[in-house]
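Re-run with default settings, no changes from the original entry. Doing this only to confirm the output is reproducible before filing.
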Amino acid sequence: MRKKSTILFLVAVSCVGCGADGSVSAAQTSPTLLVHDVRGRGDDAAVDGYVRYLEGADCFVLEAVGGGGVRNVAVWPPGTTVWLRGGAVAGVRVPDRDPIALGGRVTGSGGYANPTTSELDLPAVAPDCLSGGGEFVMVHRLTP
């Protein structure tokens, strides 16, 4: 595992080499919601951002706090589902906590995977999902 500084104003531990410990998959499509099964490595990096759903790109992202144009593709813990209200995407439901609304701030810990260097088999996503040097962020633990 190697350390890497990001524009997000935090130090993130890259999830390079996590492939042996799990995978990233689409738990749901229409809208697409990614979940991970990555355990044991790369889960001590700070996670901090605002939950957005980019309808045209069909992805959930965490936008960096403080701007900067950085978007990371959100990869949620197993059991997470899309929260719909009146047929529209309202946010996500992460197990054992209240739903997280679009625009809500998420803080906690996890790991990051660079789409060009990671050994994980990462899904293809639209370019808008990974703006400003963004990566895939495996959300492991959320703070209340």
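The radius of gyration is 14 Å. Residues 61 and 73 are 4 Å apart (CA to CA).
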